[in-house]
Structure formats: C-alpha cells, structure tokens
TrEMBL record:
InterPro entries: Endo/exonu/phosph_ase_sf, Endo/exonuclease/phosphatase
Pfam families: Exo_endo_phos
Residue ranges constituting the Endonuclease/exonuclease/phosphatase domain according to the UniProt record: 6-225
Domain of life: Eukaryota
The organism's taxonomic lineage, starting at the top: Eukaryota, Viridiplantae, Streptophyta, Embryophyta, Tracheophyta
PANTHER family registered for this protein in UniProt: ENDONUCLEASE_EXONUCLEASE_PHOSPHATASE DOMAIN-CONTAINING PROTEIN (PTHR35218:SF9), RNASE H DOMAIN-CONTAINING PROTEIN (PTHR35218)
Name listed for the protein in its UniProt record: Endonuclease/exonuclease/phosphatase domain-containing protein
Length: 260
C-alpha cells in the first residue's frame, strides 16, 4: 500500500490543486493525508474528491491556519476511530495481505506553548498497544540537534519532551530515504534553515507486520515541506537512513558512564 503525507501549506488556489492532482495521479497512493489545508471541511471535501479520493474525513481549519484531510480509494477498507484539529485516527484493513493496522495522521502544534497539549493527545489515543500502529505527519519538532541546520538552537527541554512522548507511546522513528530534512525556510546560504519536522513513527507490531516498508522524502515545489511517501511493501528496506544520536548534555548525567 502507498500512503502520501504532506503539509501542503494551503489549497486555496486552483493552480495549487492542479499541481496536487498531478502529483497524486503520478504516484497513485491508496491513502493521502494532507496537513495545513487552510480550508473549511466542505471546501476540502471538494478538493479531495477532485483528486480522486471519494472517501475520507476533513477537519476544518481554524481561521487561516490548520486543517486536515485524509482520503482513501474505494478499494481500501478504512474505518474512522477519532479526529481533532491535531489528528485523524483510522483502522486500515489491508485486504491484499489480510493485515489490520492503525494509522494516525498527526499535526503538531506550531506554537511551543501548545506543544504539551499536542503530546498529551498522543498519549490519550495510545489505547490499542496490541494493534500495529503508525503515526505519520508534521510533528513541528525535532528529536535531536542534528535534525536542524541554521536558525536558533532548539532547547534540550523541547527535544526531550518530544522523545519522551514517543517513548511513552512505545513508538520509534522508522527512518527514511532521500534528503535529511523535510522543511526549509529561506534559500540564501546566509539565512537558510532546514529541519526534519515531518516523519513516521511506529510500534514494534507495525514494524514486524511490514518489514519491507520504505519511507521516502520526495522533492517539493509549492510547499516549504516535502511530501512523505510510505510504501509498506517496497523492497528489502536495507537502505533506510539511520543516525547515531548523542546529546552533549548527557555527559552531565551521573548515569551516563555506567549506562554506556
């Protein structure tokens, strides 16, 4: 199964919708998750259907920000569990393999003061640990300093809170192929900022269910985020990108040396 996840940064212009239609036609995913649509649900439903996804769920934008949409093809058996301004949670029954798994599209809070509430939402919906679970989306946060280049240094506390919620939900980063960053601001070398804000994380049952998955960071044109393309049955999955992680602040912990 192919799944596209993309923070599109608004779909209010006909030209943007046409570009999205072209991309989805070329890739032909079974499920598409669109983040930050900046549209009312009725408007987004029209866009989703024009893109060939008759079935789906659309969440209103708040003013000129936010908005979520998840659509799926007719041959997909998808059932909605819950949704909010920050997430869409579904169960997918993959008839081709007879596999049942859970997919949560997530949009993390752009504002730091609202991030704790977003993390608590993930903890609240972590109610089916036995079901293979994938969370994919724009988390609006990095886990380690090497996931950011340029701009202000991210505080240790913010990254620790992100890593803590992943640990609490018993999910781990599933890696990627392609460029290391998923979001870019400014193009001049003097002020360029790049961060890995978009990712997929999954629990052990999901990783065991789909050992051949691949997550690609695709090139982007009309958004400052790149699309994520997940293929659950792509290949041997031996060329994912993994990074050794180390924070200098860990050296200050008394338990560091015994743990190492």
């Amino acid at each position: 199964m192919k799944l596209i996840c993309w923070n599109v940064r608004g779909l209010g212009m006909p030209r943007t919708v046409r570009r999205l239609q072209h991309m989805l036609r070329d890739i032909n995913p079974s499920v598409v998750l669109l983040i930050e649509t900046k549209l009312r649900s009725a408007q987004m439903a029209q866009v989703r259907r024009r893109c060939g996804f008759i079935n789906g769920i659309d969440v209103d934008a708040v003013g000129r920000s936010g908005g979520l949409s998840m659509g799926w093809k007719n041959n997909c058996d998808v059932s909605l569990r819950s949704y909010s301004q920050r997430h869409i949670d579904v169960l997918i029954n993959d008839d081709s393999d007879g596999k049942l798994w859970r997919c949560t599209g997530f949009y993390g809070a752009p504002e730091e003061q609202h991030r704790a509430a977003a993390w608590n939402l993930l903890r609240q919906i972590n109610d089916m640990p036995e079901i293979p679970w994938l969370i994919i989306g724009d988390f609006n946060e990095i886990a380690f300093l090497n996931e950011k280049q340029g701009g202000l240094t991210r505080s240790d506390r913010q990254m620790q809170e992100f890593r803590r919620v992943l640990s609490d939900c018993e999910v781990e980063d599933i890696g990627y192929k392609g460029r290391w960053y998923t979001w870019e601001k400014w193009r001049f070398e003097s002020n360029n900022i790049r961060e890995r804000l978009d990712r997929g994380v999954a629990n052990s049952p999901w990783l065991n269910l789909f050992p051949r998955y691949v997550l690609n960071h695709l090139s982007h044109s009309f958004s400052d985020h790149c699309p994520l393309l997940l293929n659950t049955q792509d290949g041997e999955n031996s060329n994912k990108t993994w990074h050794f992680r180390f924070e200098a602040s860990w050296l200050l912990e008394d338990s560091c040396e015994p743990e190492v």
